[in-house]
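User: I'll paste a sequence; please echo it back and then give the predicted structure.

Assistant: Echoing your sequence first, then the prediction.
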Amino acid sequence: NSLGAENLTKLQFGSQNASTFICGDDLEAKSIVSKLGEDIGFDVIDAGPLKNARLIEPLAMLWIDLAFNRGMGTDIAFKLLRRRKAK
């Protein structure tokens, strides 16, 4: 819920894919959701347990503000950048 629906069919922005954040307490379910997200092109970020969902929900409001109130339009998405993968 942190990007517009029209972007679900075009997740690549230049050489980078849009990030999506998942939370949950069921490791098997998170693994399935992560694989589904990767299959459609997301860079899936595991944001921890379900209680962390409230931390990522405001991204949707930020996306809406940037797209509609700040003139960026709907062809935008968030990307979490890392210098190296965590072990």
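The radius of gyration is 13 Å. The chain has three helices and four strands.
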